[in-house]
């Protein structure tokens, strides 16, 4: 399986998305579609990865080589742009809008010298149909060029190919654009390639509009949640649990309903998250942490055995071990220009409805009185109190206008 390069076709603009973002950079479960495909390719350790891009985006920021396809004239035209950088004996062609593709499926292609990935779809509309003979490609017919009988075929071309480099270089010279689209198709160079049929047809689905993108996101969430549960994590209601692809959750943790966990974040062993919790990017939760109802945590590290019970926001903070964050506590991290950091030590007790105005340091075993707005550091073993002193106005009831609701019908 060694000695191959990968070319990812990523120059599609995605006009049917009807927004300002090129299609491969739309996100599915926290990562762009391009990143999902790239991750699957990297697991197989190719010699080179080349992204074919338009003039509108630069994929080199993802650590790959790039080739420019200034005009989108079809898949063969796109591969031709990358070929000067292909140096290995074989070249694997992937599509940047197929985030469900897995490295194990790609491995099945690499067993062959040359191959094409196909799949059976219940609704094959829009896909080229594959007609095979003795396990080899006989012909491929695009949707717009197919007869009604040919369109009834459910075996479709995934647009994923493994070519012998020298052969495809010669083939690309002869590809014609005599089709309804006037484009240069790689399918014209697939005669006699081995047909590898994917076991899970969801892997070959792409996204050409927002509806298809949403469907892919749902499928990806199901895959992520299933893998997490199989690893030993309890998930009370997977249908209402949204976890990004780059989140790490260790065994023994329980995820309660209506919880969103965004990556890159990590949750340690035996923690409890939710219900109705929102874990935002760059959050690190140690073992045995409890994040309760309607709690939001962002860009923060929380030590073992600490808990943020409910109705609190923790942003840009480091919290030690065995610390309790009372209900309604707000880490006030934004001053209108900068995000500031709060440090909270071990075994600290933050009283309910406290406001911690960053930047601030609260030392080990310190306390804040409930309802305080803390603007200064609190030393070890001290209690910070920052609230107006209560004053009771006696006999005030009769001086205040009010309505007696007990006398209403």
CATH class of the largest domain: Alpha Beta
β-strand percent reads: 25-35%
- DSSP helical segment count: 6
Separation of termini?
82 Å
| CATH architecture annotation name of the largest domain | Alpha-Beta Complex
Radius of gyration over C-alpha positions, nearest whole angstrom: 28 Å
Largest sheet features: 9 strands, parallel
The overall pLDDT average reads: 94
Task: Give the full name of the CATH homologous superfamily of the largest domain.
Answer: Spore Coat Polysaccharide Biosynthesis Protein SpsA, Chain A
Number of strands: 35
SS class: alpha/beta
Tally of discrete structural domains: 2
Estimate the helix proportion, in percent. Answer: 10-25%
- CATH fold annotation of the largest domain: Spore Coat Polysaccharide Biosynthesis Protein SpsA, Chain A
Order of strands across the biggest sheet? Answer: 12-15-18-21-24-27-30-33-35
| Spatial shape | elongated
Low-confidence stretches: none
């Amino acid at each position: 399986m060694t000695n191959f390069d990968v070319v990812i076709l990523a120059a599609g603009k995605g006009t049917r998305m009807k927004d300002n973002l090129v299609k491969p950079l739309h996100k599915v479960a926290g990562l762009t579609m391009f990143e999902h495909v790239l991750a699957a390719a990297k697991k197989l350790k190719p010699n080179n990865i080349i992204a074919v891009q338009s003039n509108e985006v630069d994929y080199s920021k993802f650590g790959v080589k790039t080739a420019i396809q200034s005009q989108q004239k079809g898949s063969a035209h796109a591969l031709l742009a990358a070929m000067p950088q292909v140096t290995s004996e074989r070249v694997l062609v992937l599509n940047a809008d197929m985030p469900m593709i897995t490295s194990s499926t790609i491995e099945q292609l690499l067993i062959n010298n040359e191959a094409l990935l196909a799949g059976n779809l219940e609704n094959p509309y829009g896909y080229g149909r594959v007609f095979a003979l003795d396990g080899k490609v006989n012909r491929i017919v695009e949707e717009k060029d197919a007869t009604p009988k040919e369109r009834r075929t459910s075996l479709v071309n995934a647009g994923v190919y493994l070519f012998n480099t020298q052969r495809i270089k010669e083939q690309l010279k002869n590809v014609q654009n005599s089709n309804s689209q006037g484009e240069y198709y790689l399918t014209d160079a697939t005669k006699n390639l081995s047909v590898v049929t994917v076991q899970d047809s969801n892997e070959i689905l792409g996204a050409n509009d927002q509806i298809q993108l949403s469907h892919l996101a749902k499928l990806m969430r199901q895959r992520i949640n299933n893998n997490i549960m199989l690893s030993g994590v309890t998930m009370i209601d997977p249908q209402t649990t949204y976890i990004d692809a780059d989140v790490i959750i260790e065994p023994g943790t329980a995820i309660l309903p209506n919880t969103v966990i965004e990556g890159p974040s990590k949750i340690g062993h035996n923690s409890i998250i939710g219900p109705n919790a929102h874990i935002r990017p760059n959050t690190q939760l140690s073992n045995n942490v409890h994040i309760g109802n309607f709690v939001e945590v962002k860009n923060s590290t929380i030590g073992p055995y600490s808990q943020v019970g409910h109705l609190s926001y923790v942003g840009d903070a480091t919290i030690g071990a065995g610390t309790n964050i009372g209900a309604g506590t707000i880490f006030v991290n934004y001053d209108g220009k900068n995000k500031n950091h709060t440090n909270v030590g071990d075994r600290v007790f933050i009283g309910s409805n406290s406001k911690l105005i960053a930047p601030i340091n609260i030392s080990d075993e310190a306390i804040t009185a409930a309802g305080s707005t803390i603007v200064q550091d609190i030393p070890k073993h001290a209690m910070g109190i920052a609230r107006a002193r209560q004053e009771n106005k006696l006999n005030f009831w009769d001086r205040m206008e009010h309505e007696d609701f007990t006398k209403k019908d």
